[in-house]
């Protein structure tokens, strides 16, 4: 549907940087812009920062001139949206993306209503037009032959407000096109290999490799890293909250790891920074009808959930969750597993299309990553999107968190006239990581907790909690509307999440004790509460208890923008 024209950059002096536009089915135009000098002399010392910081100190070009206000690494959903909104505010933005071709992914296909509202705030809502995006009005849960419909609470919103599902690549390309159409956006294909530092403290730009293999440097007062879940710059800018015990359990802890921990703590953290609780096996079902159109379908299967949602008028995405950090089956064995184990658990209306999709053979596998993290407050650099923070994609909240972060960052940067005071700007933007917590921590916590609750367990208490969750949501009204408002990004309040989660647990206890309690049932009931606590507390602790529930007690919450 889309094609990306090839481009060649004409390299001129830094004061006359050639900007190019990339577009679909039309030739681009080079638009030269003259930028004023931000720095009169070269920085005294620059050195590169890769995954492990290098001691090399390459000399910068004499008379270094700031060619852009902001460098954005990555042109996915977060990067394209950020480039667009900053350029609309008059900032010069240089976007460097490793591959400008249309992405082909099996996740990032569902935008929650809260994310769509953020899209409207950014002026990007038309990016879901003309890509055959489908309206999503809620979810339907299936469990043991029963089903319950969970609509989004959209009564107070305009009729256009709903979730949207689509091909991720089409959506990303539309956002790239809209960003690149602005005068102050330069979008370039290249791979960023390192950050450039001044005085071993401030990040002043990036070093990158172009499509034709050239090694170039780009400079700007602010560099925003949003290059996705496979970011190679992540460990330079954040402190992943990895548990030491996780490495012990994994069997990877030996003398060499111990030595690495003593010599380089950051390298040790990087070995265990991203948790992979499961993987999605993706299929596309063609020319079939969902049992409930315009609803996402969640089958609480054995051993873990199966998802169905429409991504175009003729295609339905199926995602089968496979627990564990690695998929135990090769692709040839996966088809047999899907037919023998999964097919019998899906709705009958979808079974024929499901089997046909398996026979076509286009089976995709994607690891589901989860990573809470704390930032290193680095002057001149900022980390956002999946490069900084990930959650299980079961609830489809990733793009909602990313777009919410973009809106917040835009509002914080807007009153700042000069971005060149890196230390003051860094101190001010510490508030970003506090102010983002209500939305991000609510969606992150709910995603992790629901995945654990919905997955099958041999433990009796976990079984009762799973059944209690389904029955609680089946009650309707506030019992379903409250959790769905949290999941959809319409009610980003962590305390409300905790109250609903423990309401589910105590509802399960009540079901056990009525009408006639027994010692055995009381014991299982107590274990249900302990199980609920054991599921949600580690997630909340990783997100930050104080940041989630008492953000106003943190001084950074009140930071004012630096003086112009």
TrEMBL record:
Enzyme Commission number(s) from the entry: 1.14.14.17
Domain Squalene epoxidase: 220-245, 269-518
Pfam families named in the record: DAO, SE
Cofactor(s) demanded: FAD
Pathway: Terpene metabolism; lanosterol biosynthesis; lanosterol from farnesyl diphosphate: step 2/3
Keywords of the record: FAD, Flavoprotein, Membrane, Oxidoreductase, Transmembrane, Transmembrane helix
Domain FAD dependent oxidoreductase: 69-99
Annotated GO MF terms: flavin adenine dinucleotide binding; squalene monooxygenase activity
GO biological process terms held by the UniProt record: sterol biosynthetic process
Membrane topology of this protein: Multi-pass membrane protein
Domain of life according to the entry: Eukaryota
GO CC, any one term: membrane
SUPFAM superfamilies: FAD/NAD(P)-binding domain (SSF51905)
TM helices/strands, residue ranges: 497-516, 522-540
Compartments where located: Membrane
Gene3D superfamilies in UniProt: FAD/NAD(P)-binding domain
InterPro entries: FAD-dep_OxRdtase, FAD/NAD-bd_sf, Squalene_epoxidase, Squalene_monox
Catalytic activity: squalene + reduced [NADPH--hemoprotein reductase] + O2 = (S)-2,3-epoxysqualene + oxidized [NADPH--hemoprotein reductase] + H2O + H(+)
Function: Catalyzes the stereospecific oxidation of squalene to (S)-2,3-epoxysqualene, and is considered to be a rate-limiting enzyme in steroid biosynthesis.
UniProt similarity note: Belongs to the squalene monooxygenase family.
Record-linked PANTHER family: SQUALENE EPOXIDASE 2, MITOCHONDRIAL, SQUALENE MONOOXYGENASE
Protein name, entry field: Squalene monooxygenase
Organism field: Vigna angularis var. angularis
Lineage: Eukaryota, Viridiplantae, Streptophyta, Embryophyta, Tracheophyta
Chain's gene name: Vigan.05G236100
């Amino acid at each position: 549907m889309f094609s990306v024209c090839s481009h060649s950059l004409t390299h001129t002096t830094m004061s006359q940087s050639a900007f190019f536009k990339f577009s679909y089915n039309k030739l681009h135009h080079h638009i030269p812009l003259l930028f004023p000098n931000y720095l009169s002399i070269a920085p005294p010392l620059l050195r590169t920062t890769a995954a492990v910081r290098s001691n090399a100190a390459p000399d910068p070009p004499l008379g270094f001139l700031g060619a852009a206000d902001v460098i954005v690494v990555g042109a996915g959903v977060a990067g394209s949206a950020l480039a667009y909104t900053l350029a609309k505010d008059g900032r010069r933005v240089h976007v460097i993306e490793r591959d400008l071709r249309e992405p082909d992914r099996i996740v990032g296909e569902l935008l929650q209503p809260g994310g769509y509202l953020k899209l409207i705030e950014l002026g990007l809502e038309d990016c879901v037009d003309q890509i055959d995006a489908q309206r999503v009005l809620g979810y339907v849960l299936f469990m043991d032959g029963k089903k319950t419909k969970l609509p989004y609470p959209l009564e107070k919103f305009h009729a256009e407000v709903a979730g949207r599902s689509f091909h991720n690549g089409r959506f990303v390309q539309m956002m790239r096109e809209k960003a690149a159409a602005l005068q102050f956006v330069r979008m370039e294909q290249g791979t960023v290999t390192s950050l450039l530092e001044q005085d071993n403290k401030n990040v002043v730009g990036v070093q990158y490799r172009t499509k034709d293999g050239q090694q170039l440097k780009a400079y700007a007062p602010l560099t925003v890293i949003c290059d996705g879940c496979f970011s190679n710059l992540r460990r330079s800018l954040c402190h992943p909250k990895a548990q030491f015990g996780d490495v012990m359990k994994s069997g990877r802890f030996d003398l060499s790891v111990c030595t690495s921990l003593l010599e380089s703590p950051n390298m040790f953290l990087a070995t265990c920074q991203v948790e992979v609780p499961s993987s999605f096996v993706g299929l596309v079902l063609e020319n079939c009808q969902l049992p409930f159109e315009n609803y996402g379908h969640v089958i609480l299967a054995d051993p873990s959930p199966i998802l169905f949602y429409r991504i175009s008028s003729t295609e339905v995405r199926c995602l089968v969750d496979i627990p564990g950090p690695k998929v135990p089956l090769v692709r040839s064995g996966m088809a047999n597993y899907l037919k023998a184990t999964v097919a019998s658990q899906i709705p009958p209306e979808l079974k024929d299309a499901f089997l046909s999709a398996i026979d076509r053979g286009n089976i995709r596998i994607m690891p589901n990553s989860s990573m809470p993290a704390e930032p290193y407050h680095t002057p001149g650099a900022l980390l956002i999107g999946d490069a900084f923070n990930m959650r299980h994609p079961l609830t489809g909240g990733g793009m909602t968190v990313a777009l919410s972060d973009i809106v917040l960052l835009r509002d914080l940067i807007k009153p700042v006239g000069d971005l060149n005071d890196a230390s003051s700007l860094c101190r001010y933007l510490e508030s970003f990581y506090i102010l983002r917590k209500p939305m991000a921590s609510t969606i992150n916590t709910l995603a992790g907790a629901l995945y654990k609750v919905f997955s099958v367990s041999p433990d009796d208490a976990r079984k009762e909690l799973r059944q209690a969750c389904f029955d609680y949501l089946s009650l309707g009204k506030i019992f379903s509307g409250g959790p769905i408002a949290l999941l959809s990004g319409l009610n980003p309040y962590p305390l409300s999440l905790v109250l609903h989660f423990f309401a589910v647990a105590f509802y399960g206890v009540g079901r056990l004790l009525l009408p006639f309690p027994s010692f055995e049932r009381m014991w299982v009931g107590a274990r249900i509460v302990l199980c609920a606590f054991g599921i949600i507390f580690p997630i909340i602790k990783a997100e930050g208890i104080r940041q989630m529930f008492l953000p106003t007690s943190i001084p950074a919450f009140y930071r004012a923008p630096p003086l112009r």
